[in-house]
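This protein record is not my work; I was only asked to verify it. The record follows directly below this note.
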Amino acid sequence: MEGNINEKITKAMLVNKENLINIKWVIKQIKNAINNNEKIIKHANEIDKKNNNGFILDFNIINNIFNNIEKEKIIYKNVTLSQKDNEKKIIYGRQIMDIGNVVVINDGSPYIIVEMILRNILAGNSTIFVNNGFMYGTNNLLVQIVQSILEQCNISKYLIQIHITENYDEILSNYSNIDLVICIADHSLQTLILQKSKVKTIVSGYENFDLYIEDATHLDLIDTIINTKLNIQIYINNQLKLDYDNAIYVDNLDEAIAKINYNGNKYSSSIFTASPNNASKFIKEVKSKIVTVNTSPTIERIIDIKQNDLVNEKTIIYPLTFKFSKNNK
C-alpha cells in the first residue's frame, strides 16, 4: 500500500466520521463483498502459500468471525439509558465513542485482520495494521475490499489501512498521534511492544499456540495440527525421541509447564498425554486462557480482545423534564 507511516497516520487523523452510521449495514456489505470475492481471495491465498508466505484460509473461521460480530451491541455513537433516578429526577445514560487512532501490530494472520477491521469499524476507530508482510497478498486484498465498501458508503477508505514494516520504533515514535496500540502476536513481540509503547497497549497471543507432547498415541492428529503451518510452539518430552523442526525438548511435565508459562503466548495450550494426573496438573498450572487435552490447541479460536476495550464511554446526565428537539435521538 502507498505512503509512509507518517502519511498514513495523518490520513487516519483526518477521517471524517459523520457518515459512519448504519454500521451494522456496513458490516453486512463487507461480509457480502468478501463472500462474493471468495474465489479471488483464495487465489491470492494460494499465491501466498506457494511463496511459503502463508497458510490456507478456512472460510468457516471467517464466517464465524462475522457471526460473532453481528451479535455485538457496543456500536459507535449508540446511546443507551443506564439508570433513572426518580428521587433526584435525573436520567443517566451512556454513549459509545471511539478511542481515535488505533495501531494494530500483528503477525499477519488474515483472521486477525478481518476481526480487528470489523471490531474497530464497530467502535468508530481509524485503524492501521502493521506487520512484516506475512500473507501480504491475502491481507492486502482483504483491506482493499473493505476500503471499496467504505467508499461506497461515503466513508473515507483511510478508516482502514495497512503498513508493512518491522521497524516498530518508527511506528511507535508517533505516539502523540496514536490513541491505542494493540499487539496480537507471539510472546517475544508482545514483550518488545510493551517495552517500546508510550500509549495504552493491549496484547494478545491470539493465533499463537503452545503444544506439549508426552505421549505418542495421537501422532497422526499431531502431524495434522502441525501441518496447518499456524504459529504453534512445540514442546516434546525427551523420552519420546520425536523429531520436529524448532521443537523445544523438556525432561518432564514441570519443565514443560514452566517454559510455556515463561515463554508461551498465554492464549491456547494443549497437552497430549496418557496420564489423567498430568492432564489435570497441566490444566491447573498452565497460564493460558484456553487449555485442551489430547485435542488441537487451535480448536477454539475466539479473539480475547473485547469490544469494550476498543471504545470510550461518555456518561450523559439530564433531568427528567428535559425535552430533546425532534432532530435529536
